[in-house]
Amino acid sequence: MNTPRPRRTALRALLCALLCAWALSPAIAAAQGPEVDRLVVRKAERRLELLHAGQVLRSYRISLGLVPTGHKEREGDFRTPEGHYRLGYRNPRSEFFLSIHISYPDADDVRYAKRHGWSPGGSIMIHGWPNLITRDPLYYELTDWTDGCIAVANSDMVEIWMMTTENTPIDILP
Fold first, then answer.
1. Homologous superfamily in CATH for domain 35-173
2. Which of 72, 74, 152, 173 could form a disulfide with 79 if both were Cys (CB 3.0 to 4.6 A apart)?
């Protein structure tokens, strides 16, 4: 006798939930520890660090904007900002795997852009890879490919998402 369809669907959903919990358990266990009180991005080294009381808790390889050198000046320049900002809102449904907003542009960025007749741009995020992969995975791992955001591997993004909170300072260094 065959199992009724609703029962099969429920069993599949339960199995899927258990497998997801099992797959994420190392990331959850790794994320436990001291509170992250600062993030530091070292653009030249392509590193993002999570810190507590000046000590590095985690370090990740990053990809930057297509034009990685220099401070973001305006919308469409493909640069990643440099300066002191804060983490903002989180978007679990972005076109990239998770995303956390960075508070660019600040008042100085807006003044500078306005003085030159430009829009400063915005929507600078820390995020994972695109949800719809269109290139070889090595492209996302080894090149600067964003419009100005900071991108990490999806597994790294899970840890960053879990270990940080809104309003945490982030220093983006050249």
1. L,D-transpeptidase catalytic domain-like (2.40.440.10)
2. 72
